[in-house]
């Protein structure tokens, strides 16, 4: 038994007191340290958390950089926009919210149904448009009732605007809301910010990094229930950079209008600098509609159109260039040692082995030298000369002039065509090049394919005598092109022949300029796209006016002006035009567009005379076409047709474009087969010219 004394009891108490004091001191130090850590080291973190309970911050989409022409005129700019969106993830009691919005905004029943359909198909974070281009009164009415409208996002910002509409569609492309895949890939909150749009096609897509800018931030003080107390200081956005193009906006719009109801393209290039002044593909879509979210019915209408308005024909369209290659071939013949004065007698046909190769003029042209062969577009002259020198002597010159060449342009979708020779055929078909191949290629048929842009470069290089490098973006001085590796005398012969095509009784007389002191040098062309059977040949080849649209010949035209000192060069390609209507054919179209560069008033007067006969300007015809399509449509129902098309990808990658490309490839292969089996264009018809 332990005896507890007063002394031991006092000692035990003192020890416990000390231990307790030490423990209390330790706890105190820990608390003090924690308080110091929270108040000093973590001050910024908890201050931000506290602030977030009081302040609501949302990103403000940046104003997109403008796209302007060479003179500063806007091609794509921004307009002030009041709009209302719904964020599906934040939406509560959908029916009640839509009923309130319908009342405030006076939305018709079909619009409510369209919103319901869009909500059903949208990703949870993806804004669904309720209405855009709101007036201030209705926008304010929605804003003051936000506490009872969870998921509704009124936005005051800027929308993309394309003043020239369809005339610039395939140049600029368009902008649209970010896709679910783009958000998942980047996790960028800007992607899901209402009102934010990014480039989807064309220049808007390729120039996205510089055009986008940096977002701002909007700060508002709210109550615990989220009710707005007051707006606080906001962080302004940083606008994107302006992109300046070499394009002349006035010329671009004029050329688009002058194409009328044609399916085709125009490219014009400055012969001094290589600047691209116009790059038009028509018909086209209105990029303003795409940027706002195109409807299912509108997308279907564009996809069903046999003129393929979703295709950028300047870069994606490939065509047999027809007789437009004859000036280029003449330069190659001169380079190979052929004399310009040497004559070939054209009787209308040329026998090669057991085959007969025809000229477009069945009775023949008689004896012709090089200049007159180009002027009259004589096939027999070029058959004979290609047979003599071999096509391997022509193909390298063609490549030097831009045929088959790849150009550094800010577009994602380009096709480069074919400039064939014996090595190419051996590699592709594992067969040898034949004389028949040379004859077909000499008139721009057979295996030869080019896009309109390459044809414009060809015309510009012949006109200037320089190895022009085309450019679209005006960033720094224009490149200094080197002279072509051909003599000035040879180039002069070719230019003189092209002058004669228009001004001395050649095939392009209708293209003669009416501007005093300005002459046009040009070459017309026709490219056959269908197979002509033996029975049709025996009974008489059908005229283009007797054929359906897709079976008609393409019409082509290359030119430069003034003929004596070229300043501008151009290519016009009209799909399935068939030379059926004079004021829609290439000579008058090319003449008027070139006239715009020298006498704008005269060009506009000419357009004003013929445009009403086509049904009005681009917008008027598009409106009428859309109304007719809607009236004829039996499905889908109106609400579904109005719903936003969720699968509308970039127009240049659309299924309709892929189908058109596949069909063109099949036609090219069929013609290649005909050439190889002795039934090519040269054997059947020659190269028909405009009448």
UniProtKB/TrEMBL annotation:
Signal sequence region: none
EC numbers, comma separated: 3.4.16.4
Residue ranges, annotated region (Disordered): 639-691
Polar residues: compositionally biased ranges: 678-691
Keywords tagged on the record: Carboxypeptidase, Cell inner membrane, Cell membrane, Cell shape, Cell wall biogenesis/degradation, Hydrolase, Membrane, Peptidoglycan synthesis, Protease, Transmembrane, Transmembrane helix
Subcellular location, record wording: Cell membrane; Membrane
A GO molecular-function annotation: serine-type D-Ala-D-Ala carboxypeptidase activity
Membrane topology of this protein: Single-pass membrane protein
Domain of life from the UniProt record: Bacteria
Keyword Transmembrane part of the UniProt annotation: yes
One GO BP annotation of this record: regulation of cell shape
Main subcellular location: membrane
Ranges for domain Penicillin-binding protein dimerisation: 60-232
GO CC term, one of those recorded: plasma membrane
Record-annotated Penicillin-binding protein transpeptidase domain positions: 264-578
Ranges annotated as biased composition (Low complexity): 648-677
Coiled coil: none
PANTHER family: PEPTIDOGLYCAN D,D-TRANSPEPTIDASE (PTHR30627), PEPTIDOGLYCAN D,D-TRANSPEPTIDASE MRDA (PTHR30627:SF2)
Protein name (Swiss-Prot/TrEMBL): Penicillin-binding protein 2
Native source species: Sphingomonas aliaeris
Gene behind this protein: mrdA
